[in-house]
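Researcher: We plan to redesign the surface later, but first we want a full-length starting point. Tokens attached.
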């Protein structure tokens, strides 16, 4: 148990680990900010300019721009999730594993 506590402390104090955390957090918060921006833009448009969203996509259609905008927010959320998972699998996770391996030596 004590060896585990020592290795955790070594990982936390490792400059590579600190750099990894900064990069990962900056990336994650940037993507989260993008989603929040899109979501709040949608909500604020609903609140203050619902007439923009009420335009039909084509003459005689019941589907309107608001539905398209809402689906766009959902699609953006899925895309951002895919982007984060790909980068985590390719960059963040392998580097974290390497740092842990070094701490256990």
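Model: Full-length starting sequence:
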């Amino acid at each position: 148990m004590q060896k585990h506590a020592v290795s955790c402390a070594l990982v936390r104090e490792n400059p590579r680990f600190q750099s990894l955390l900064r990069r990962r957090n900056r990336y994650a918060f940037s993507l989260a900010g993008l989603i929040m921006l899109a979501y709040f833009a949608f909500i604020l448009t609903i609140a203050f300019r619902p007439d923009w969203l009420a335009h039909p996509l084509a003459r005689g259609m019941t589907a309107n721009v608001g539905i398209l905008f809402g689906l766009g927010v959902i699609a953006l959320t899925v895309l951002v999730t895919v982007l984060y998972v790909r980068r985590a699998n390719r960059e963040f996770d392998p580097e974290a594993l390497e740092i842990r391996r070094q701490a256990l030596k």
